[in-house]
Known about the structure:
The protein is α+β, with helices and mostly antiparallel strands. Among the domains are: 7-62, no CATH class; 82-145, no CATH class; 482-531, no CATH class. 41% of the residues lie in helices and 10% in strands. The chain contains 18 helices and eleven strands. It has helices at residues 7-23, 26-40, 44-53, 82-94, 100-116, 124-131, 135-141, 223-236, 255-263, 280-293, 302-322, 348-354, 360-372, 375-390, 414-417, 482-491, 497-507, 517-531, and strands spanning 182-190, 200-207, 213-218, 243-246, 267-270, 328-334, 337-342, 396-399, 405-408, 423-424, 443-444. The strands form four sheets. It has a five-stranded mixed β-sheet with strand order 3-2-1-4-5, with helices on both faces. It has a two-stranded antiparallel sheet with strand order 6-7. The radius of gyration is 33 Å and the shape is flat. It starts with 6 loop residues before the first helix and ends in an 11-residue tail after the last helix.
Amino acid sequence: xxHRMSLKSKRELLSVTAPRYQxxxxxxxxxxxxEFVAATGYHRRYAIPLLKHHQATPNQDESPGLSxxxxxxxxxxxxYTDEVKQALIISWxxxxxxxxxxxxxxxxxxxxxxxxxxxxxxxxxxxxxLLTVSPATVDRLLFDxxxxxxxxxxxxxxxxGLLKHQIPVRTFADWNDLRPGFIEADLVxxxxxxxxxxxxxxxxxxxxxxxxxxxxxxxxxxxxxxxxAIDQLRQQLPFALLGLDTDxxxxxxxxxxxxYCLGKExxxxxxxxxxxxxxxxxxxxxxxIVRKFIGYDRFxxxxxxxxxxxxxxxxxxxVNFFQPSVKLVEKKREGSHVSYKYDKAQxxxxxxxxxxxxxxxxxxxxxxxxxxxxxxALLGHxxxxxxxLWLYAYRERVTTVxxxxxxxxxxxxxxxxxxxxxxxRPSSSLPQHQVVCDPQAATPATNQVSSDRPQRLYRQQxxxxxxxxxxxxxxxxxxxxxxxxxQQLEQTPDLxxxxxxxxxxxxxxxxxxxxxxxxxxxxxxxxxxxxxxxTGVAKDGR
Length: 542
C-alpha cells in the first residue's frame, strides 16, 4: 500500500522545498517539482503556485501554501454573474418552476414577453448570457432555491363493464397519428382522504399531438354531467375533436357518451383495465398540473365549484401559452440500457400554430391572444383564486390531549415548498373571477419573498410513526399450533426450525404453505431469544 504523508509533513516539506524551487533554474525547477509531486501526491498545477508563492509565515498551521494576502484566485472567472442568475430566477418563477430542459428552449420567447410587460430590463450582455445558458448550468444556478413537490392520490374510478365489448381498446403504443384532435380524458377526484360522499371532480382534456389542455370542474360524477362537460370542452378546443380516449369508469362507458360520440363522428376508445400507462399523457398532466395547482384537499359544494371554474379559466391560458413540454421522439434499447430522445421543448400554443391541420384563422386568433397575455399577471390571479379556494377545503376534526376539538389545518412551510414570491403584488388586485391580464397586477421586486398568502399541502399526509411496528397486519397463522410447537422445542431444543416446519406440514396437510417458512423461522428465533435457550446447534433458527 502506498504511504501517504500527513498534512503536517507536507507543510514541512513545502517550507524546505519552496526556497530551493524559487532560486533554481528551469531544469532544476522541473526536477524539484517532480520530486515534490511524487512525495506529496499533489497535482502539478496545484503544486506549482504553492512552491512559487510560498513564504514562511508565523502561523504555518493555518495555511499549507499562500498567505491570505498572496493567494491568487483559482479557476476561471465566473461567466454567469448575479445579474444573470437573478434574471434566470425571475424567468423560472414566471414559468412556474419548470425543469431546465423545458425552460431553456422557451427562454427566448419568455424573456421577450417579460421585457414587453416590464418585468425584465436586461442589458445586451446579460440578455445574451441568459439566452445561451445550458440546462446543466440552469440546474446549478437554481440548485440552492429549488424545492421538489410530490404527492399521491386516491383512485376513485368505478369500473363500468357494460360497454367494454363495444368500445375498442387503445394502448399507449397506438398513438401514431400526429394530428391535433385526439384527446385523452380523465376525471380527477378532489376527495381528500375520504372517497365517500359528495365531492368535486375535474374533467381534464389533453391533446396527444400538441399537449393542449382543457379543464372543467364537476359537481356530480354521472354520465349526463360528464357528457355535458365534454361538449363544453370540445367547443373550447382550437381544433376539431377527432378522437376521445378514456379509462373504464362508468361515467365514460355508457350509452349516453357512446351515442354522443357517434353523433359527432368522434372516435371513442378506452384503455385497458388497471393499465394506467395506456393513458400516460393524461396521467402525467393530472399530477403536474391539477395536483400541483389544486392539491389533494377535499372540496364540496357550489362555492368551491364556482371558484374552480374561474381558476381553470385562468389556468388553461397559463398552461397552454406559457408551459413548454417535450415529446418523446425515439426510444432505443441496447441490452439493459434504454436511451430516450426528445424534441425541442415547446408550448401547446406553439405546437398548435405549427400544425398544418389547424385553420389559419384559428392560428391568427391565438397569436393575437398570446400577444395580450402576461404570464406574471396570470400567476398572480391564480394565486388569489387558490387562496379563495383553499378556504373551502375540508378540515378534519382532531382531539387534542386536553380533550378539546380543533381544526386540523394543513399548511406548507415557507422554507420547505412555498413558491418564492419575487413579484410584488399590490393590494389592489384584479376583480374576482375575471380573466384579465393587467400589467399592474404584478410588478417585479428583486429578492422579495411573499409570505402573506396561505399555503396548503401539495401531498397527502403520511404516517409519521417512526418506531418499530408492534401490531400485526395479518392474522397469526401459527396461533392454534404454537403450544404444540413450544412443547416440541422444549423437548428437543436442538431441532432445526426448517425440520420442525416440515413435520407440521405433514401433521396438518394443506394448512401451511412453503412460503410461510421464513415467518416460522423468525418466530422460532424470537422464542429462543426470549427463553434464552442454547442456540449453538440452531443459532439462526433453522
